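Here is an idea for our session: we take a single protein and study its fold together. Which protein we use is up to you, so please pick one and set it down. Once you have written the record down, we can walk along the chain together:
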Amino acid sequence: MNIWLITLGEPLPNGAVEKRLLRTGLLANELVKKGHKVTWWTSTFDHTKKEKHAENDTELTINKQYKIFMLDSVPYVKNISFKRLWNHYNIGKKFYKAAAYQQKPDIIVCSFPTIELSYKSVLLAQKWRIPIILDVRDLWPDIFVNIVPFPLKLFARILLWPWYKTTRKSFRGSTAITGVSKQYRDWGLRYAGRTKNENDRVIPLAYPKPVEGVLSSIDIKKTLSEFGVDSNKLIFIFVGTFGRTYDLSVPIRAIRKLTEEEKASTQFIFCGTGDYFTEWKTHADCEKNIIFTGWVEKKQLDILLKISDVGLAAYASGAPQGLPNKIIEYMSVGLPIISSLKGETKELLAKTKSGISYNANDEAEFLSAVRNMMIDKERSEMSINSRREYEKNYAADEVYAEWVSHMEEMVKKSKSHTG
């Protein structure tokens, strides 16, 4: 098969430093492994680091079966900003124009959002009479209405009406709708105005199995020293983007209420960067057992996860995430989880007994969860359950192999129908 993958904002497999690949990168590797040809369309702009991979449109050859087209567009600093909207509009327009000069694929898998790229991808698929999968990653434009005060929600919906219209057209024109969770898939189906068909699937966020024995003692010692981490203490780790849908202020306030003895025996490592980095770091400056690492490379993160004891999923109240990658990443290394998410994540942790949920605004509940994790027996049991659930349902090799098989079947049916 010749497959196009269309996704912005994910780490790319380029450069000398090994990257922490996410959904599209892992899917691309699985497709190549099965002998398929892959073209990944993306942007020159790194959404996480807010810097450019290249200054112009660039074609990157990974191997003879795999290439990446990076389309240049305007950079932006804030995730919610006019410049980001212009970036997305511009990328969608450039993609549609550039795609016309390429050999048409057998199938397109486009991440939703962005809205513009999804719509342009659907138009191309319809023009070429090929199947297209829209893979729901985030609930745009609903997420923007959800963050405004209630009296302004109607105005926000009116303002975003063109996006709502385009979103409906995109999902109604898709061949299949997949989602990282049932909640996300069903959200896409509602915009499509139809019930689930045989092509629609839940493809969970999967994570590669950790490779044992690849981290040297020298690398581990160097990383721990660099960040001031004491592996003899009980380590709680948060990995993520310091943005609007997360909230570390509640954990920070709760940590302040630990006893001096509890503080001396614990460390809280907050890995990442984003809009709220300075605010949260300033808020926590007086607490010696809180460490802000900033951006970390994959090897460093692997080490920090390896020596950690508990994973933190500290989301803001009303966060739209259902079952995010962070949960699966923690499970892959057997970390029990403290999470503020409701819905699918809360249900999973309760069902598998692999973590503790707390209300996003309740520091007392967070503090109680931390103290429960200090009990070795309870933490150990949750750790075993966490790893078991990962092995059963969220190992990348199995999840993406199944997705590739599904795509192969869709292409086979499409070609039989078109002759």
User: Anything to note?
Assistant: Residues 396-418 form the longest helix (23 residues). Residues 217-393 form a domain with the Rossmann fold fold (CATH 3.40.50.2000). The chain is about 45% helix and 15% strand. The chain has two domains: 2-206+395-418, 217-393.
